[in-house]
């Protein structure tokens, strides 16, 4: 079962489990749509894997299968690499 982390690792934006707008990699690193698309170009800065849209967990199932409450915030790893031009 997915961990459904509650926030973006880059900007710490809230990412409710029952709403869209979150992206994850195969290790469940979690990012908001803005950071995933605009900052990270859909590549996880932690593992180099693809960032894909995270499915939502229906609100009716959250009580029985709650989302994680552990926030991971690593803004230092989310800055785009400087271009070597």
UniProtKB/TrEMBL annotation:
InterPro entries: DUF1272 (IPR010696). It comes from the Bacteria. Pfam families: DUF1272. Residues 63-85 are annotated as: Disordered. This is DUF1272 domain-containing protein.
């Amino acid at each position: 079962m997915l961990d459904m982390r509650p926030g973006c690792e880059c900007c710490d934006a809230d990412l409710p489990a029952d709403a869209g707008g979150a992206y994850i990699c195969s290790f469940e690193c979690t990012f908001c749509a803005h950071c995933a698309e605009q900052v990270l170009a859909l590549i996880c800065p932690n593992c180099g894997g693809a960032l894909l849209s995270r499915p939502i967990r229906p609100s009716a199932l959250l009580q029985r299968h709650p989302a994680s409450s552990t926030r991971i915030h690593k803004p230092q790893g989310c800055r785009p690499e400087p271009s070597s031009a």
